TrEMBL record:
The keyword Iron applies. It comes from Dyadobacter luticola. Transmembrane segments: none annotated. This is Globin. InterPro entries: GlbO/GLB3-like, Globin-like_sf, Globin/Proto, Hemoglobin_trunc.
Length: 123
């Protein structure tokens, strides 16, 4: 167990599917940040699942399909403010909170997101 990745410890693909579905249900209806997610909603969810898989130590699925994540560059066409990052993190916190895992694991998982969310801020 000591060598298990965070991806494995939270429940792998099943957990990430639950997380992305719950997260995007919140995001797509959020009055501040829903404007950032207007393209194919199923594709958005799938890209996030693939990215989170490798971000959390699982298989490099995103890179296999789309190449290097280059997340900041991919987000540059969108105006992203600190308030957007905070709203995104609030949605993610709520989604993580609904996973059937321990509080410690929820905290460890959520702690992976703030740095990345604020790295996307470009305005």
């Amino acid at each position: 167990m000591e060598n298990e990745t965070l991806y494995e410890r939270i429940g792998g693909d099943e957990a990430l599917r639950q997380l992305t579905n719950t997260f995007y249900d919140l995001v797509f209806n959020h009055e501040l940040i829903s404007r950032l997610f207007k393209t194919d909603k199923d594709l958005i969810k799938e890209k996030q699942r693939l990215f989170l898989t490798q971000f959390l130590g699982g298989p490099q699925l995103y890179s296999e399909v789309y190449g290097h994540p280059m997340m900041r560059a991919r987000h540059m066409p969108h105006t992203i403010t600190e308030d957007d990052a905070i709203a995104w993190l609030q949605c993610m916190s709520e989604a993580v909170g609904q996973l059937p895992i321990s509080r410690e694991l929820k905290d460890e998982l959520f702690d992976r997101f703030p740095r990345t969310a604020f790295f996307m801020v470009n305005s």
